[in-house]
Design a protein that fits this description.
The chain is α/β, with parallel strands linked by helices and 379 residues long. It contains 15 helices and 15 strands.
């Protein structure tokens, strides 16, 4: 059986973790198969070649490209097309309208093995077994370009929080699957032997469990300071002890989704923290010598000129090293999406791109507010 994995994006500076894990899991636990990989740049060279299954990783940002993919690549419908990922999990019917034969909701490893073995249920619900049983991801087939990091590491999956704008809680059901520190260090050891010097932990919240972070950091110290890395973390979880552990093990920057400096907005978006708690975390990062990168979203429910001014004041007090300012996207499965639907939002908007949440304020107003904040504007 011949299987083609498709990344609907051009080559990037980091591999696609989902495809890397599916590749290694299928090799370890599936029947004998021939695997191929294509991205948006290379898929044209494979047109006309026979594949039994074409598996496409679909997030919301890729939908405008994916919508015509099957028709252009496989006009006669000779292959069995499977969609997985956050967007496909939230809106399987939209995938069927695009011509997909099957949708995997949630984690895809075990589900894909079942599909290769003959399962043809229209919607297959993925399940997560013990995360440490999943083999290390295999990225060797993927084309990546030189960037800030040599590779990425997923030391966990999922998030327990319920932020109204984030699709992770919907995909994972607010559950978290943490890999053992020994598993994480084993993957890193292999990567370093392959020449990796820089990497980022791409978890939703790498710093969630302090004891595990400590064990990973202790292991990383054995590799020496020539390897530097970055991670994500919730600001309120970052105290001096945590930050000293990270910095001493080679971490140079922590990425934090602060979103707002207004307690009103943090409460409305169910962030589960306060501006004061996040401010303390950013200061702890900077005291340790690491750099602080913060994400800000302008335009969440309840936003006003006054709350944006609070965020500006927050950034002036905390002085993060990097700031990325965004406008709120409508992502399926989120509470923000459900609010948009109640106000008349139509799912066909995803076919043209990721829509903004502009049901309380005009986009021009949000852009004007965002322009008053420091940082890179990512919209």
């Amino acid at each position: 059986m011949k299987i083609l994995f498709v990344n609907p994006y051009p080559p990037s500076t980091l591999p696609v973790p989902g495809i890397g894990y599916l590749w290694s899991y299928l090799k370890a636990y599936g029947p004998e198969v021939e695997l191929s990989f294509a991205d948006r740049q290379s898929i044209g060279s494979l047109k006309g070649k026979p594949f039994d299954v074409v598996a496409v990783s679909v997030d919301t940002y890729a939908v405008p490209y994916v919508v015509g993919l099957k028709k252009s690549f496989d006009p006669e419908g000779k292959s069995h097309w499977v969609a997985g990922g956050h967007h496909a999990s939230a809106l399987p019917d939209q995938m069927f309208e695009m011509g997909f034969d099957q949708v995997v909701r949630g984690p895809g490893e075990k589900a894909l093995v079942g599909i290769v073995n003959g399962c043809r249920d229209k919607v297959v619900q993925g399940t997560m077994e013990r995360i440490d049983w999943i083999p290390f991801p295999d990225y060797r087939s993927q084309t990546v370009t030189k960037g800030r990091w040599d590779t990425m590491i997923l030391s966990s999956r999922g998030c327990p929080h319920q932020c109204t704008y984030c699709s992770s809680s919907a995909f994972w059901g607010r559950k978290v699957y943490l890999r053992q520190a020994t598993s994480v260090l084993g993957e890193l050891e292999m990567a370093i032997k392959d020449g990796v010097n820089t990497f980022i932990f791409e978890d939703d919240n790498f710093t969630m469990k302090k004891s595990r972070v400590k064990e990973i950091c202790e292991g990383l110290k054995g590799y020496g300071r020539k390897h530097w890395w970055e991670c994500s973390g919730r600001a309120e979880a970052l105290d001096d002890e945590m930050c000293e552990m990270l910095a001493s093990a080679g971490c140079t920057m922590v990425w934090m989704g602060v979103e707002s400096g207004s307690d009103k907005i943090l409460q409305r978006c169910k962030k589960g923290t306060t501006a004061e708690q996040q401010e303390k975390g950013i200061h702890a990062v900077k005291r340790s010598g690491m750099k602080a990168h913060v994400h800000i979203i302008v335009g969440l429910s309840g936003e006003s000129a006054e709350t944006v001014a609070e965020t500006k004041s927050f950034l002036q007090r905390t002085k993060p090293d990097e700031v990325a300012v965004k406008l709120p996207w409508v992502l399926p499965g989120t509470e923000l999406y459900r609010t948009a639907k109640s106000l008349g939002f139509d799912d066909s908007a995803f076919l043209k791109g990721v829509p903004l949440f502009v049901f309380e304020q005009e986009e021009s107003t949000l852009r004007s507010w965002a322009s008053t904040l420091p940082g890179i504007k990512c919209y």
